[in-house]
C-alpha cells in the first residue's frame, strides 16, 4: 500500500519530477544527536531508531502516512487464541544487504537475544507480553522458552501471555530482526559500527565507526522493494545547534534539517525559509524524573512545588516557540480516546500540571522544614542540545524564583552520556524525552511500572502497579481504559515523573525535494519515499 501511494503521488508530478540520473544526486540531511548503536537489541535512543527506520524492517512497517502495513511479513495478520497467537509468513524475496535471505530464525534470534539477561538490553521489556518473558529475564528459563519460534524457514509463530492492543505498532517499530550469521560472527560487537551489521530495509548504513558524527545511507540493492526507492544516497551529519542547522539549510548545503528554540522565530520572519518550514505536533513527551534516592528529590513536597512552579504555557510559547504544548499528565494528547466518554484520553484524565506560584512557595516552605531548613542544592541533568539547554535554564529560573534557598545546577552532556547516568541512577533530577509510538496510553504509562528499565530508580508504587497489572489482563475495553486512567492519576499524585510538555518537531525541507512526510507517530522522515523534484 505504501509503495502504491508513492507511485501514484509521483505520477501526478509529471514533468516536474527530476530525471533518473538526477535522482542519484545525494540528499544531505542533519540529525540532532549521535547514534548510540546499530544493534536493534541494544538501542535505547530515538536517533538510533530513526536510523533503523531507514535500514531495518520488521514484520510490519509504517508507510509514509504512519499506517501499519506489511513489511517482512506478507500481510498484517489477525491473531488467534483470543488475540494471543500470531502466525506470520515472511516474504521469500526478502534479503539482507549481504545477500542472505531474511528468515524466521532471524526474528527468533533477535527476540531471544534481546530478552536474554546476558545481553543486558535496557529495553528487553518491549517483549514483556511474550510467553515466558519474566522467567527468561530473571534467568529461571532459557531464552529458547520465549514465546517465539520458527515453524519453517519463512514461517514465524509468536505467542503472547495476554492480548496486546499495540502489537501491530510494535511489530512495525520495535520488533526488529538481526542477521543471525553476523550475530554469531561478531557477538556483543554486532552493530557497533556499519561494517558489523547488515540491513534488510531500503538503505544500508555506511561510513559509521560507532562514534562519528557523519554517516551515509546507501540504497540497498537487495531490498525487495528497491525499485520504489528513488534516492541512491543520503548523507547525514549531526548538527546540535539549530542556528547552525538553519544556516546550512539556507546555504543549500542540506535539504532537510530540524530546528528549535529562538531559531524558529528567525525563520518565521524570512519568507523564503518560512515557506519551507513544517511543524508537527508529536506524541513524544518531555518529562522529569526525580530520583527518590536523593534527599531533596525524594521529598514529596519539593516535587509538588517543582510541578506548580512551572508555567508550561509560557515555556512552550516563549521558550520552545515550536508548537509544543503543555502536558496535562503522563499521556500526550492524540494518543487515543477514552471510550467511556469520547474525550481524548489525556483530557479525560484531567489537568495535573496547573501553574501556581503561591502554592509552589507554600509547598517549598514545608519541604524545607522536612529537609532541615537552610539552603538546598540539586542538579538538573539534561542532554546538550541547544533547545534543551534553553528549557533547562527556564526551569532553573522558575524553580529558584518560587523556591528561595534552592540552588539549581544544570549538567548538560551528550545524550548517550545522559542515558548512561540515568541507568546508573547517578542523578538528582533528569529531564528527558520519551517517544512512544503506539496509539495506546501504555506507551507512556508503562514507564512508571515496577521493573520497567526507564523507571530509572525502579520506584515501586504498589497501587500504581496494581492498576496497571489489572489493565493488562482486562479484556473489556471500557474497563481497561478506566483502569489506565486511574493509573495515570495515581502517577501524578506520586509525582516521581513530572510531565513538562508534548513535543513538536520543526523541520526545514527543501522545495526541491518531494516525498518527505511527518506524522504524529512517525516523526522520522522515511527517505525511501523521497525524491528530487
From TrEMBL:
Keyword Ligase in record = no
Q: Where in the cell is it found?
A: Cell envelope
Q: Name one GO molecular function term.
A: peptide transmembrane transporter activity
Q: Which residues form a coiled coil?
A: none
* Name the record gives this protein: ABC-type oligopeptide transport system, periplasmic component
List residues of the Solute-binding protein family domain: 67-453
Where's it mainly located?
Answer: other
- Cellular component terms per the entry's GO annotation: ATP-binding cassette (ABC) transporter complex; outer membrane-bounded periplasmic space
